[in-house]
Amino acid sequence: MLSKIQALPPSNTRKLLSADGCYVLVGGLGGIGRTLASYLLDQGARNIVILSRSGMRHHEAARTVAQLQERGANVMIKQCDVSDKEQVAAVVESLAAVGPVKGVIQGAMVLRVSQGH
């Protein structure tokens, strides 16, 4: 007679990311960026800095920040065009107050539709 064997997923409570320091998400207010910010939080990040050319001008940005904060994240939105060296330098300097940068995800892009002739 065979005994019943129950397969259970491994109990891995170890988080991939660290709660100290910060994680920078460039272009993080679009659909993919919002999902990545949530994933960072799920993986243990608590300080998330989102760089965006438009900043908090869109309703989705405020909603994203509120949702992440409700889940325990410290979220900072920095308006920054990463193609501008001076803007990037200013943001990098301001991150010293947040803690060491533990990771950067570059997700910024600009889509332009053109009519070919």
Can you give keywords for this protein?
117 residues; alpha/beta; Rossmann fold; four-stranded parallel β-sheet; 4 strands; globular
Provide structural commentary.
With 117 residues, the protein is of the alpha/beta class. The chain has one domain (22-106): 3-Layer(aba) Sandwich (Rossmann fold). It has helices at 31-42, 59-70, 85-94, and strands spanning 22-26, 47-52, 74-79, 101-106. Strands 3-2-1-4 form a 4-stranded parallel β-sheet, covered by helices on one side. Strand 2, helix 2 (59-70) and strand 3 form a beta-alpha-beta unit. The chain is globular and about 70 Å long. The model has no long low-confidence stretch (mean pLDDT 85).
Secondary structure: elements and pairs:
Elements (H helix, E strand, L loop, with lengths): L21 E5 L4 H12 L4 E6 L6 H12 L3 E6 L5 H10 L6 E6 L11
Parallel strand pairs: 1-2, 1-4, 2-3
CATH architecture: 3-Layer(aba) Sandwich
In order across it, which strands form the biggest sheet? Answer: 3-2-1-4
- Give the biggest beta sheet: 4 strands, parallel
Q: What name does the CATH topology carry?
A: Rossmann fold
Strand content: 15-25%
N-C termini distance: 76 Å
The value of Rg in angstroms is: 19 Å
SS class: alpha/beta
Count of discrete structural domains: 1
What's the overall geometry?
A: globular
Percent of residues in helical segments?
25-40%
Number of contiguous helices: 3
Count of extended strands? 4
Query: Quick check: average pLDDT?
Result: 85
**CATH homologous superfamily, by name?**
NAD(P)-binding Rossmann-like Domain
What's the CATH class label?
Answer: Alpha Beta
Low-confidence stretches: none
In N-to-C order, the SSE pattern is EHEHEHE
